[in-house]
Amino acid sequence: MTTETAKQTIDAELSVPAPVELPPVGEEVNLDASENYFNRELSQLQFNYRVLKQALDTTHPLINRLIFCCIFSSNMDEFFEIRVAGLRQQMKYGRETVGVDGMQPDQVLAEISRVAHEYIHEQYDILNNVLIPELEQENIHFVRRREWTPAQAEWVRTYFEEEILPVVSPIGLDPSHPFPRLVNKSLNFIVELDGKDAFGRETGMAILPAPRSLPRLVRLPDEVCEGGENLVFLSSMIHAHADELFPGMEVKGCYQFRLTRNADLELEDDLEDLASALRGELLSRRFGDGVRLEVADNCPEELVQFLLREFGLTERDLYQVHGPVNLTRLMAVGGLVDRPDLTYSSFSPSIPRQIRSKESMFDAIRKRPILLLHPYENFSPVVDLLRQAAKDPNVLAIRQTLYRTGADSEIVEALADAARRGKEVTVVIELRARFSEAENLELASRLQEAGVIVVYGVVGYKTHAKMILIVRREEGRLRRYVHLGTGNYHAGNARLYTDYSFMTCDESIGDDVNKLFQQLTGMGKALKIKKLFHAPFTLHNRLISLIEREASYGDKGRIIFKFNALTEPQMIKALYRASQAGAKVDLIIRGICCLRPEVPGLSDNIRVRSVIGRFLEHTRMYYFGNNGRPEVYCSSADGMERNLLHRVETAFPVEEPALVARLREDLDTYLADNCQAWVLQPDGSYIQNQPAEGEEPFASQLVLLERLTSKPV
């Protein structure tokens, strides 16, 4: 299949919410009607599909297209581990809940299965018929067993005997060896056997877990190849030598499979020790209930049915794939081959002149607030601020929230250094940051050992706000310096995610952040906040109020929101009302969107777009035209119930006219995108923007690279 044919296949009509009968224009619309909302889970699936589509976009380098294919797998893993698992739990315990879209959990699960099977089939079609052939044209080969030369086969045998055989543990199935409890998402093989083992047992079947410590892809050495980059799968090596694991028996077949389990953690709200409870739950995550079974498509039907019975799954949960069962591991290709021409060119994030010209971050911030857009602008000023604070004798205290920060974080080192130097350092660590729990437990221990006061936030409310507060003595008085952000304090993410950093010494904002830390670390009633909006107390109500204000301006109303997801019904209704009043609404929503746009009488004036590209769009911003006096807020919060009502979040105003203008320019850049933007249709489908005839291509991320980086590419 050619690339163009594959594109036509993918562009074929896919699953979208069924058309609904809408009231005639002029009739009153019931904002509570289920047909006015898209289903959350199905919308998330569509985002995953937009990521997969990047694998066919030839404006991306080839290896990065392969990585997009892998990211789709990773996204689908989490979707099944959390979202599908949650729906199955509702069914299991009779706790079915119906969302504003009106779909029952069993209906959603059935539709998820139908759509996910379709998408995953397309994924393997793209891999096998587009990406692998194009990689071969670039002399990058996945060498199959049938293609091994004698020299390659001998090298594989040596590798198997020295690296695989000593650590692999085959498990024969018999009454004394029941089916093993397999780890979530681990690669395994079911092996058909004939004959008797050393004890005279005739089992007929064995399970072979692939050692998790071994790479799934191995580069063949140049001396056994005739040029190019040659890679071999671990699964191929195990298949080729499976008989050596069962001496004296005949291996009739060896087939890959992989089980995805429920990986959501369930913690009670009245815990006495959150850290201890979380450690216990982390152990159970690896062995939760099964939610999906992936099996090689050549596996015999009787073995497939055997596995389904063992895991308590049905045909709806079965995904038979033509290729490796875990494509996420193909991300390793970029590190195994030396082909920089097939990956994104590097660029140098810029540092604003205001910071470069000042030795002290404190001097720069006092002069005027600093706004950075990562990854186009460097994350290092944030790290420098903490480093300087740690060493500055005039700094008395540092407080910070940490959600995800990475194992080897310079920020953590700076905090520990500050504590060792005798400063009062308090860190609020969110232990329940999904899939970072173990890392955050370790991080908490490291900081405590350095003398940092570690707080685990508020039970029942994840601390998702991104805040640093530094208290410094200057000229006989105390001044507060603040960093507020839309993204995590993670240097790696800051190279891949788009996020805003805002640094200021505004007295009111400093006082607000101080009060927020008091609420997080102490106890008492919610304190009055001047400039910041904060969840779960004021953020939701204030945003609704500002939307209603724009609605009051009629056709002069202007709203632009940019965030990752929109699911909260009251916000959606407020946006519908604003549209009906004539206000113009643009929503730049990367992922889930439950709002149905451009429906006559309901949302005529609402446009929704999703931008997918090299960087993961992660900035959250709320822009209100305010009748010519624009107000803009950046935030840690998305438009979801959990963010607005059940988490600790902040939204902070950016008030300086030059920075407001800059943020509006950024928003306009996304709204002008005719390459990377996908526009949500009233029926729930997305159509990728294309330049009109005679129109120049305009890719927002590329434009921002050229505008903001010191070495644009």
TrEMBL record:
<dbReference type="InterPro" id="IPR036832">
    <property type="entry name" value="PPK_N_dom_sf"/>
</dbReference>
<feature type="binding site">
    <location>
        <position position="404"/>
    </location>
    <ligand>
        <name>Mg(2+)</name>
    </ligand>
</feature>
<dbReference type="GO" id="GO:0008976">
    <property type="term" value="F:polyphosphate kinase activity"/>
</dbReference>
<dbReference type="InterPro" id="IPR041108">
    <property type="entry name" value="PP_kinase_C_1"/>
</dbReference>
<dbReference type="InterPro" id="IPR025200">
    <property type="entry name" value="PPK_C_dom2"/>
</dbReference>
<feature type="binding site">
    <location>
        <position position="590"/>
    </location>
    <ligand>
        <name>ATP</name>
    </ligand>
</feature>
<keyword id="KW-0460">Magnesium</keyword>
<keyword id="KW-0479">Metal-binding</keyword>
<dbReference type="Pfam" id="PF13090">
    <property type="entry name" value="PP_kinase_C"/>
</dbReference>
<keyword id="KW-0067">ATP-binding</keyword>
<dbReference type="GO" id="GO:0009358">
    <property type="term" value="C:polyphosphate kinase complex"/>
</dbReference>
<dbReference type="GO" id="GO:0046872">
    <property type="term" value="F:metal ion binding"/>
</dbReference>
<dbReference type="GO" id="GO:0006799">
    <property type="term" value="P:polyphosphate biosynthetic process"/>
</dbReference>
<dbReference type="InterPro" id="IPR003414">
    <property type="entry name" value="PP_kinase"/>
</dbReference>
<dbReference type="InterPro" id="IPR024953">
    <property type="entry name" value="PP_kinase_middle"/>
</dbReference>
<feature type="binding site">
    <location>
        <position position="497"/>
    </location>
    <ligand>
        <name>ATP</name>
    </ligand>
</feature>
<comment type="similarity">
    <text>Belongs to the polyphosphate kinase 1 (PPK1) family.</text>
</comment>
<protein>
    <recommendedName>
        <fullName>Polyphosphate kinase</fullName>
        <ecNumber>2.7.4.1</ecNumber>
    </recommendedName>
</protein>
<dbReference type="InterPro" id="IPR036830">
    <property type="entry name" value="PP_kinase_middle_dom_sf"/>
</dbReference>
<comment type="function">
    <text>Catalyzes the reversible transfer of the terminal phosphate of ATP to form a long-chain polyphosphate (polyP).</text>
</comment>
<keyword id="KW-0547">Nucleotide-binding</keyword>
<feature type="binding site">
    <location>
        <position position="75"/>
    </location>
    <ligand>
        <name>ATP</name>
    </ligand>
</feature>
<feature type="domain" description="Polyphosphate kinase C-terminal">
    <location>
        <begin position="360"/>
        <end position="524"/>
    </location>
</feature>
<feature type="active site" description="Phosphohistidine intermediate">
    <location>
        <position position="464"/>
    </location>
</feature>
<dbReference type="Pfam" id="PF17941">
    <property type="entry name" value="PP_kinase_C_1"/>
</dbReference>
<feature type="domain" description="Polyphosphate kinase N-terminal">
    <location>
        <begin position="37"/>
        <end position="143"/>
    </location>
</feature>
<dbReference type="InterPro" id="IPR025198">
    <property type="entry name" value="PPK_N_dom"/>
</dbReference>
<dbReference type="Pfam" id="PF13089">
    <property type="entry name" value="PP_kinase_N"/>
</dbReference>
<keyword id="KW-0597">Phosphoprotein</keyword>
<keyword id="KW-0808">Transferase</keyword>
<feature type="domain" description="Polyphosphate kinase middle">
    <location>
        <begin position="152"/>
        <end position="332"/>
    </location>
</feature>
<feature type="binding site">
    <location>
        <position position="434"/>
    </location>
    <ligand>
        <name>Mg(2+)</name>
    </ligand>
</feature>
<dbReference type="Pfam" id="PF02503">
    <property type="entry name" value="PP_kinase"/>
</dbReference>
<feature type="binding site">
    <location>
        <position position="618"/>
    </location>
    <ligand>
        <name>ATP</name>
    </ligand>
</feature>
<keyword id="KW-0418">Kinase</keyword>
<feature type="domain" description="Polyphosphate kinase C-terminal">
    <location>
        <begin position="532"/>
        <end position="701"/>
    </location>
</feature>
<dbReference type="GO" id="GO:0005524">
    <property type="term" value="F:ATP binding"/>
</dbReference>
